User: Fold these one by one.
Assistant:
Number 1:
Amino acid sequence: MSAHAHRDDIGSKLGMWLFIFTELLLFGGLFITYAVYRYMHPEAFHLASQELDVPIGTINTIILLISSATIAMSITAIQQHKKKLTLVLIAATILLAAVFLVNKYFEWGAKIEHGIFPGSAYLDQLGYGDVLFFGLYFFMTGLHAFHIVIGMVLLGFIFYYVKTDRLKPDNFQLLENGGLYWHLVDLIWIFLFPLFYLIA
Amino acid sequence: MADEKHHIIPHKTLLMVLGVLIVLTLLSVAITQIELARWSGAAALLLAGIKSTLVLLIFMHLKYDMRIFKVMVGLIIALVVVVMVVTMLDYFFR
């Protein structure tokens, strides 16, 4: 290719941040919904929150924090021309994401087994507060888990691009953008965890 | 612009931040498990705020980025906070 390929790393990063802002507003709206319903049903939220499994929540929080660190480390690694280490760190991030989802599966499974899921007869008996708490719990952690799945696909592509040298030490903005997305997922969980699991 | 040197965050820094984040997580779990404090919820949220600031500044590289990124992120967070405060004021004084 003789023509110089057009590249604008700062513009690319700016675009990624604009997307992240829309995500922050989306989850921000959900957090406001949570705040209002919690204010209207304080006791139900207090009791319902005790149903959640704090150890699993804590473990998943730490898993996400570690995965956030590994993807940040991969950006350092690619700049230091350590391709192999970059690949290992991206792979570790995807693996940790999978572990997070497996934990989530068991957590949701246990809730559903106890008859706690949106629209269940058991939940309807408990009243509005519980319906709202678990409705928000399933929707917000579900939307978050969906973001994890998308992040895994995105990082999967990035892994392939690094492996095939489409992303290189002097051209890795996509890896940085993928990292930004992954940190966003971590950021949202940092607030989801105390609001649903800890404030009982 | 193409010559602008890209700041590289050493692995050691990132691992130290990770350590702090994990400690803060365990701390927020610990304070909310003690039943005595009625402010434990607020404390857990404050710790979440500190954690997210660390993620934004170091992991998301904002500390080393151009100023425009910091300003924009600050404005968006301010927007969410303002909408939240106004909504809650509405409910408190209904």
Note: The mean pLDDT of chain B is 90.
Number 2:
Amino acid sequence: MKPARFTYHAPVTEDDAVAVLSQVAAHDGRVLAGGQSLVPAMALRVALPAHLVDINGVADFGVLAVEGSEWAVGACVRHAAFHRPVPDGPLGRLLSAVVRHIASYPVRTRGTFCGSLAHADPASEWCLVAATLDATLIANSVRGRRAIAARDYFRGWMATALAPDELLAQARLPLLPADTRCGFYEFSRRAGDFALVMALAVYRIVDGVIADPRVGVGAVEDYPRRMRAAEAALAGRAPAPDAFRAAAEAAAQALDPADTRPETAAYKRDLARTAVRRALEAAR
Amino acid sequence: MSDKQDLVLEVNGKNYAVRVEPRRTLVDALNDECGLTGTNAGCEHGVCGACTVLVDGEPVRACLMFAVQARGRRIRTIEGLARGDTLHPLQRAFMAHHALQCGYCTPGFLMLAAGVLERDPNVSDEELLQVVSSNLCRCTGYGNIVAAIRAAAAEMRAK
């Protein structure tokens, strides 16, 4: 249970970090942020990186601020930064409601928001948030910075659009209008465990009916995504049980869960139906 | 060729000059290089919390942090919880409430609770239960651990 040998790099600027990463990426170099997923994988010898580029010393990666109409989260912002609602408004309340589902307190003091996005576990809460809110992910490398839309970012099971020499420098979440309602529901076997299913519902109520609905489901397929059929079932309808049930059914039908033991595809579809309904009810 | 690095770890207010490979975890460095054996390695992959220590006041899993990453940080371990012969309120409460049996998980629970209560002794009951769920105990059971932490929190609030 000891990590294998690696060469350690500790850059202190973003430029240095991407420069080092460009040199070691082809030689099995990996970025080390909070280390709450990578280091366990190294202890189990599932991950055997030859180089680690530790970005914890890069001061610029601590940025957590409103920039224009977006909330910018730097590469080394810890999960624990969201224990208290930031920023003001519905987005901050949503993030602080979601964060308590992430692993456990001492993991949240080290693990990072962007690290979760880079790792892209299907059961990652922040990946679901990024997909549902259409976050923008800022990748940096010696070839320059580029913005990746969340819908183009997730590519498969723990696979992202990041190239090996690219570092996820920042995530940008859209600030939500003040009257936005958000609901999150997660089902897992025990406190702090990986989700078996989770759903995020975001909508406004304008003239008594649902407007701008967003429904995302995670932990069921290879990566989280918006459920367009569920959103279509909500738009323009009163926020009432029949609309929620219709949306939950639409999401369940649109999902294509893997048939893995002990959870069958039918069971996961059933869980997703309930999770979407409960997230919608929580948002009301 | 050795790729060991020289660094100084500040543990419980004292500096320890150590020479470690980068792959050396903080818990192993505390045990083997600093001679501070009170921090227990349990699962060694971040699940059980036995190795919990405070880094700059925050509870962390010492098996998921490399010793080289603790350079320049203030580390506090179970050896630094009592003040001389005066036990920390949490230590006394764990004795009074029979919150330990085999004791292997105890240093981790104490440091976890110390980190949380010293930052906010008014932590809500719901939050406290969430915090306690971070660590594994497989013999005492959680009832007495929660009772002990509640009692220590009351004492720390009164101060």
Note: The CA atoms of residues 10 and 50 of chain B lie 21 Å apart.
